Amino acid sequence: MNWLERLSDGLAKTRQGVRDSLQGLVGRRPDAALLDELEAALITADLGIRTVERFMGRLRDARGAEAAGSDGILRVLKQHLLDTLQGSEAESLGALVARGPVPFVILAVGVNGVGKTTTVAKLAQRFQDEGKRPLLVAADTFRAAAIEQLDVWAGRIGVELIRHRQGADPSAVVFDGIAAAKARGAQVVLIDTAGRLHTKTNLMDELRKIKRVLARELPGAPHEVLLVLDATVGQNALSQARQFHEAVGVTGLALTKLDGTARGGIVVAIAEELKIPVRLIGVGEQADDLQDFQAQAFVDALFGGSD
Q1: Taking the alpha carbons of 2, 3, 4, 7 in that order, is the dihedral positive or negative?
Q2: How many Å apart are CA 276 and CA 110, to the nearest integer?
Q3: ∠191-4-58 over CA atoms, to 5°?
């Protein structure tokens, strides 16, 4: 099974929920009650209220065969979502690194349990496979397990890791990481930070301190603030994205755990409301399950390919 097939398989629950509602329109002229049912299904899929409201307006303005029955509605929906998502399709991290400064610093942020450490490690493996020299920095000193997890990944893929003991100042780890990158000729520095609750002011302040240390030691850094989000939490991911963006200026998103969620539409909601580039989406635990986001491929996976 290739990656696009895994993506389609992972989004099956989201796709089925929407298609179940569309089936109620087969052979029938959409009336107010049926459209209300469809609207509720789209909101349940976490496409976002703003996105759904704009789509329903577009659907009600459609004429003739364009909006006749489930096939016509599905065509209008797919085009609407594609229009929305193409605005969030962005330059890949690989392209950013290729044309960016050396070392290129990626600061990964996000709450507990979103797959941040794994995402950082997978990116390190990708850059190494591309012939670059990455350096991992274990700045999540709150959890010993996070340091050990990154250490295991570093050993597995043969990438250097800068780490301190549990409880150390994360900014000190970052300081040493930048010094090591300069001394060892690393091309990409990937920093894993503590999974912090976005409602905890002191933890956000710690993250701002890390950014200040980076900017002082390497002007212009971090070059990418990558927010990792768990797609399965739906609208809470949108809330996290909004608050992290306000606090530290997120420049790109990685959406993980799209496999098996009924809330895959959260990608659309975030694209609609925050206009932050979606860099990566993940559908599993393997390194190649993390891929660059492509709007057309995502919409096809969400609704079953071409009409």
Answers
A1: positive
A2: 15
A3: 95
